[in-house]
Amino acid sequence: MFPLKSILRCPGSIYIQTLRCISVSPPKSRLRNESVSVNIFDRNTKTLQRQRAAIADDVNLYDYLKDEIGFRLADRVFDIKRKFKLAADIGCNRGYVSKHISPESVEELIICDVSQKNLDMVPVMEGIKVRKQILDEEYIEFKSNSLDLVISCLSLHWVNDLPNAFHKILDSLKEDGVFLASLFGGDTLYELRSSLQLAELERKGGLSPRISPFTEVRDIGSLLTNAGFTMLTIDTDEIVVNYPSVFELMWDLKGMAESNAALNRSIHLPRDIQFSAGAIYQQLYGKTDPETGKTSIPATFQVINMLGWKPHPKQPKPLQRGSGEVSLKDLNKLDEIVREVRTIKDDKS
């Protein structure tokens, strides 16, 4: 591995590539065998990995990505014009969301993580009551109908039984309670995945999964709907981070506790495949700064943002099918239709 100090930390090295709305209504399709849990991740290994990262002397160097995503998630909490009496941050890590939560939005906050070291380092704004709880996201346990808000930032993509986790979260929420979360999606690190696959094909003549599997955007809506959430909103951010080479990228993933060490399989990556993947990565995706002549590689992180509500009788209900008064084919005439409606109303008045 190359020295960490050589990693670029200049402003602008992290930027938003695209933001697109994926879904604002629950899909009707159901996932097959969604009740079957497959243990892809070793939770004990993941716990040790996160605890080791928490006690590292240079842990602050790796917070740049999760800090950005946590800030955006906290901003979504602030957008909900309501003061939540009791909220829980599941998998809070080093407080990437909690430190941005305003006392105007939350009265009391339960911060939960598998590492006591992380819990001890979480900063929270003055005016918010804080409770600390050791909790594994694989085994979410709260009293039924006890929480007004549940948030989670970049921890649920390591859960083996995501449908069960969503069911547990729904059960813990009060009626009309809110669930807000962000997790890495299927397009995350697609450059690294393809480079490793090509390198392994070249050297070994076969493929091994080297990148942890991520949940696809199309599946999140079905999982939330089947769990019982309503009024869903799902969208994605794509954040691109530039690194000098593939080695700095993999080093940072380890420092973030996001490496694939928790996978239930052999993850040994031979040195020749590492160097081959680095060369392929540079050839396919590398960029050169025309002013300085320095080269870098982009790494894409797809972040799936989700919002769901626990059902309540007073929540808005969709209109019955066929009750619309304007055809979609007439959308190009929307201004004329609005003027006609206003004219009719003025005549009646």
TrEMBL record:
<dbReference type="GO" id="GO:0032259">
    <property type="term" value="P:methylation"/>
</dbReference>
<dbReference type="Pfam" id="PF13489">
    <property type="entry name" value="Methyltransf_23"/>
</dbReference>
<protein>
    <recommendedName>
        <fullName>NADH dehydrogenase [ubiquinone] 1 alpha subcomplex assembly factor 5</fullName>
    </recommendedName>
</protein>
<keyword id="KW-0808">Transferase</keyword>
<keyword id="KW-0489">Methyltransferase</keyword>
<dbReference type="GO" id="GO:0008168">
    <property type="term" value="F:methyltransferase activity"/>
</dbReference>
<dbReference type="InterPro" id="IPR029063">
    <property type="entry name" value="SAM-dependent_MTases_sf"/>
</dbReference>
<dbReference type="InterPro" id="IPR050602">
    <property type="entry name" value="Malonyl-ACP_OMT"/>
</dbReference>
<dbReference type="GO" id="GO:0032981">
    <property type="term" value="P:mitochondrial respiratory chain complex I assembly"/>
</dbReference>
<dbReference type="GO" id="GO:0005739">
    <property type="term" value="C:mitochondrion"/>
</dbReference>
